[in-house]
UniProtKB/TrEMBL annotation:
This is Formiminoglutamase. It holds the Pfam family Arginase. It comes from Hymenobacter wooponensis. PANTHER family: ARGINASE/AGMATINASE, GUANIDINO ACID HYDROLASE, MITOCHONDRIAL. The keyword Coiled coil does not apply. Transmembrane segments: none annotated. The keyword Protease does not apply.
Length: 382
């Protein structure tokens, strides 16, 4: 597929402002005059400037470009970096056209194991990100980081307010699991959270993330893709969205979540949406978001490829229980010390899934209690 027809090239000053050979600018292949070879890349930066899904309209300047101006001046992390910047996506004639344009582009990148990093535009653009996974012919999981849960039902509501509902209700369904992270409970209607619980999906309030951010890691590790709304950050840390909110994640917490996402062997796309540069003060939010992307890239290049649970990379633990099931099987990665839980369907023993879990889940089982993650996964297996 000739992806070049969907993109506008970048201004050279966005990439070449630094003369240092140690910054990311020296390691990216950008779309300036020639479209880069995305098939040979590990990661592909895609700028978005589509705001028809937002009631607030488009900002005066391009958010992805503002983030680029900081991102490419950051020092390269450890290891090699194979990064291309495809430029800025040309919006379709309609918003639906843009969604389907994203679907085609991301699906092509997935086919060649190139991870797209989507930056800019309103949060509903993750619907296009979601649609790309319909081409994989398997069930997928995803996670959203947002202060609100975008499940609006009212007629005439802008897409950025109900895109999550559209994904969860999509037919034919190819969704296995969903996780909602860092929402603020006083911004979410109780019936919305009740609906997610009824569907056996996991949620983690911003206070729970703050109390122990490690609780978020298994939820992000199960995701095939992550959708991150800038509005999940508190305004003082990232004044680049509207309306402002004094509460939310700190920059440090957001960067940690981005690292968790990048380090997930299974994750194949990452979206960072909602940044409005016209609300940014002195480029503070742009720098914060650029640093988040740096942590995502760094996490990616620290992946361990631990997926063969029968290999010597894992320690297997069997825990006896007094009821049903009589036994639970856990796996611990020797190098990463990450934990996994084997869930066998009670209805059909041929259906089995190994899902991310925490050390606390293992300790709970060792005390004779079924971990909540086993209960939720059992319900999803049907």
């Amino acid at each position: 597929m000739n992806l070049a027809i969907f993109f506008d090239p970048l201004r050279e000053e966005l990439i070449s402002a630094s003369s240092s050979t140690t910054t990311l600018a020296a390691y990216v292949t950008p779309f300036l005059d020639t479209f880069p070879d995305w098939r040979a890349a590990d990661l592909a930066f895609i700028g978005l400037d589509e705001w028809r899904g937002s009631a607030a309209g488009a900002p005066a300047s391009h958010g992805a470009d503002a983030i680029r101006s900081h991102f490419y001046q950051l020092q390269k992390g450890s290891g090699s970096v194979r990064l291309v910047d495809l430029g800025n996506l040309r919006p379709g004639l309609t918003l639906e056209d843009t969604y389907h344009r994203l679907r085609e582009i991301i699906a092509a990148l997935l086919e060649h194991n190139t991870v797209p990093i989507l930056v800019g535009g309103s949060h509903d653009l993750d619907y296009g990100q979601f649609l790309a996974y319909e081409t994989l012919d398997r069930a997928v999981s995803f996670a959203t980081v947002d202060a609100r849960v975008d499940m609006g039902e009212q007629d005439g509501m802008p897409p950025e307010k109900n895109h999550l509902r559209r994904m969860l209700m999509h037919e034919p369904s190819f969704l296995f699991n969903f996780a909602q992270l860092a929402h603020q409970q006083y911004l979410v209607a109780p019936d919305v959270l009740a609906a997610l619980e009824k569907l056996h999906f996991e949620t983690l309030r911003v206070g729970q993330v703050r109390d122990d951010i490690r609780q978020a890691e298994p939820l992000l590790r199960q995701a095939d893709f992550v959708s991150f709304d800038v509005a999940a950050l508190r305004w003082n840390d990232a004044p680049g969205y509207y309306p402002p909110n004094p509460f939310g994640l700190t920059n440090e917490e957001a960067a940690k979540l981005a690292w968790y996402a990048g380090h997930n062997d299974q994750l194949s796309s990452f979206g960072l949406y909602g940044y409005r540069p016209d609300h940014d003060q002195h480029g503070l939010a742009a720098m914060a978001l650029a640093t988040m992307l740096w942590y995502f890239v760094e996490g990616y290049y620290h992946r361990r490829g631990e997926t063969d649970f029968q290999s010597k990379r894992f320690i297997r633990y069997a825990v006896g229980l007094p009821g049903t099931p009589a036994k639970l099987v856990f796996y611990k990665g020797k190098r990463t010390e990450k934990w996994w839980l084997e869930v066998e369907s009670l209805a059909d023993s041929d259906i089995k899934r190994i899902v991310p879990c925490s050390y606390q889940d293992y300790l709970r089982a060792a005390q004779g209690d079924l971990p909540n993650r086993w209960i939720l996964t059992q319900a999803l297996l049907g």
